[in-house]
Amino acid sequence: MKTYIVRLEPEERERLRKMVSVGRAAAFKVRRANILLQSDGNGPGWIDTRIAEGLGVSVRSIESLRQRFVEAGLEACLARKKQTRPSIPPKFDGEKEARLVQLCCSAPPPGRNRWSLRLLADRLVELEVFDSVSYETVRQTLKKTN
User: Is the alpha carbon torsion for 94, 97, 103, 106 positive or negative?
Assistant: First the structure.
């Protein structure tokens, strides 16, 4: 038994048909448009297993797309869901970033003309700001502060 039933308005159906037929949208949008068109209660109204077999997606994906359509509308279905929190928390906070900038502005180590990214990363570990930090993380942080 479907708990979330998709009922497309004629304008929405036409927009989705156009998106599928023109093929200039991202692949995930075309796939979602096809799912919505096939599960439309005012149209074909295919069952989820038939849609899953025909489009090569899981039944759970279809169920969650139908739920998102009913709860948030067509635009939310066609857009990627924003991440609520990053999957990896950032290493640098304000205090550690300030320490990095302070280190960059200081004199380079003896025998060097300037700081390299690897030297900065190594020095941050020596100063026990981090247990370990990659020079690429240092680069990305410095790029943001410019």
Answer: negative
The rounded distance, in Å, linking the Cα atoms of 49 and 59 is 6
- Measured distance CA(2)–CA(53) in Å, rounded: 18
- Give the pLDDT of residue 1: 61
> How many Å apart are CA 6 and CA 106, to the nearest integer?
62
Domain boundaries, the chain: 10-78, 94-145
Inter-residue contact 6 to 36 (CB < 8 Å): yes
Q: Which residues of the chain have pLDDT under 50?
A: none
CA of 2: how far to CAs of 30, 41, 47, 52, 68, in Å? Answer: 23, 11, 9, 15, 14
The predicted pLDDT at position 146 comes to 67
User: Distance between CA 144 and CA 78 in Å, rounded?
Assistant: 31
Longest dimension (CA), the chain: 76
DSSP H helices, 1-145, are 10-22, 27-39, 48-55, 59-72, 74-78, 94-105, 117-126, 135-145
Residue-level pLDDT at 85? 81
